[in-house]
Each structure stands twice: as structure tokens, then as C-alpha cells.
Amino acid sequence: MILHRVLLVLHVLPRLLIVSAYPSKLPCNFPAIFNFGDSNSDTGGLSATSLTDPVGWPNGETFFKMPSGRNADGRLLIDFIAEELGLPYVEPYLDALGGNFSHGANFATTLSPILDQNSTLPLGFYSPFSLSVQLSQFLQLKKRSQVLYQQGGTKKYMVPREEFFAEALYTIDIGQNDLTSILFSPNMSPENYLQDALQRLATVIKEIYKTGGRYFWIHNTGPLGCLPYVLVRPPVGSEEMDETGCRIFYNALAEKYNAMLNETVVKLREELPAASLTLVDVYSAKYHLITHASNYGKIHLFYIVTL
Ligand SMILES: *[C@@H]1O[C@H](CO)[C@@H](O)[C@H](O)[C@H]1NC(C)=O
Ligand SMILES: *[C@@H]1O[C@H](CO)[C@@H](O)[C@H](O)[C@H]1NC(C)=O
Ligand SMILES: *[C@@H]1O[C@H](CO)[C@@H](O)[C@H](O)[C@H]1NC(C)=O
């Protein structure tokens, strides 16, 4: 079962990863998580910006019992990763009202692309917090948190300790919004667009590496062609769908991105020999979940699949 395999991988890999790097350390000993991404891992970032209406009910209703800023009624993958590592949920960097970043920060916002877009919210569609902006925010946090830490007081207990940056798990889940932005870039072939996007992604990982980050946990992109917003805007004829009702063109685009991402990660492993880069096949897990939804009890597909 693909899903079980992936969940197993989620449980087992951090252990393998850390064991091979520090044989004497306890498994899963990451003191912090720094996350970069889009709605798939947005724990309240875009909601905090007020660029869109705050994410309201029924979001959060099954787990947090209140709107949590996530585009989900429960927890996201990033929440389960935090739980598994024994860390607090990763708080949105943009939350000006009481964010506690002592064990990491979440730079992801809903609708974030890798590549900067001309048409950002509220004028258009995309979040202005592209991956490059998220990197700048991370660098800013890294620098300023050490000043705050040294100043002491309560702020000291709201920012990561300096050594956490080298020991942290860096999680990345982004790319989905670049797939849709390709359609608004008629002057560029999808191939070239994806190449640019992945080159940027590689640059960001190298920048984090330069600052001392070593453990990278990268999700590939999910089956975009199965998402409701892709199926209804504009409505699709049956000839454009596969046997499970997903849109063929968009899933092919996602698979193309994933194949290129895989190549990018292979290359990064050669270029950054001291780094651990784990590529997680989220596409297969989500595709399985969507096509076998009835095996897993009551699942609201709308909530599995977000922007
Ligand atoms: C976005 O803006 C940049 C810089 O102004 C320009 O080079 C590019 O063609 C624009 N892209 C689109 C899709 O309008
Ligand atoms: C921030 O969270 C950490 C870990 O949960 C906790 O130890 C610390 O006291 C919190 N800081 C403040 C100022 O509440
Ligand atoms: C990446 O490609 C290799 C073969 O080149 C394959 O074995 C592996 O499963 C791929 N990983 C993902 C996450 O698709």
C-alpha cells in the first residue's frame, strides 16, 4: 500500500537520517523545524497577513475546534511531522500576534509559488510570499533572533537558539502554484518554466546550506489534476479526465515537475555532500488516498487538497 509505505517512510526516515549523521545521538533529535511552502503546509501564514479573509469555519473544526488558519478541518502533514518529532506545531512567521519561534517557524503561505508572480494578492491570484521571499524571511529571523536571544527577557524564550539552525529539519512543500502559473505564461514553454522554478528551488536550498542547514525534507507536488478547483474552473469534459475523474493534463504537468524535482535533488546530493536530502513521494500517497477514498472512512476530499 503506497500510503502505508509513505507513512512508514515519514516515521522511519528521520531516524535513519540522523542515525547516519550522528551515530551517538538519539534518533529524531531535531530541535526545530523551518518550513517553506504553500497551502499544503500553511499553518496560518496567509490568514495572518489579512490579504485574504481569515480562514474561517469549518476549518479547524475536527481537531483544533476553532479556525486555525489552515485550509483544512484537521491537521496538515507538517503538523504530524511536528508531533512525531515531539515539537510544538510550527507557527507562522507572519503571525504578529504572539508567534513563538523557539522551535522553528513556518514561512509557508497559501498560494505561494516558487517563482515571483506579477499578479499577487489582492490584485490577482498568487501570494506575494514566494519561495525567495520566504528565504529572506528565514535569513532575517536567523539574524534577528540571535540579537533577541542575547537581550534576554521573555523574547529569549520565543526565538530559536543559535545552534538549532544547524540541527533543524528544513521542510519544503512548494511547486503546486507554479504549475498553474505556467498557464498564464504563454510566452514560455512549460519545460523552461519548470526548469526556472527548480533552479530557484535549488538556489534556496543551497542558501540555507550556506547558513549551516543540513537536513532537508522535500515533498514532491500532489496530483493537481484531482483538485476541485482544477476540475471546476473551467468545467472539464470527460475526454480530459482519467478513469478516476482527475484531469489528465494537470496530472501530467505535476508528474513532469516531480521527475524534474527528483533530478534536481539527485544533483543537489552531489553538490552538497554534507547535507541529507530526503525526497518524499506525496503525489503517490495523495493519488492513492483520492482514488481509494472509500477505504479510509469518511474523507472530505475538499480538505485534502488545497491551493
Ligand atoms: C512580469 O514582470 C516582469 C518584469 O517587469 C516581466 O519581465 C515579465 O514579462 C512579466 N511577466 C508577465 C507574465 O507579465
Ligand atoms: C515558547 O515555547 C516554548 C516551547 O513550547 C516554551 O518553552 C516557551 O516558554 C515559550 N515562550 C514563551 C515566552 O511563552
Ligand atoms: C526518484 O527517481 C528514482 C530513480 O531515478 C526512483 O527510484 C525514486 O523512487 C524517485 N523518487 C521519487 C520520490 O519519486
From TrEMBL:
It holds the Pfam family Lipase_GDSL. InterPro entries: GDSL, SGNH_hydro_sf. The keyword Mitochondrion does not apply. Transmembrane segments: none annotated. Residues 1-21 form the signal peptide. It comes from the Eukaryota. Coiled coil: none annotated. Keywords: Glycoprotein, Signal. GO terms for molecular function: hydrolase activity, acting on ester bonds. Belongs to the 'GDSL' lipolytic enzyme family. This is GDSL esterase/lipase. It comes from Rhynchospora pubera.
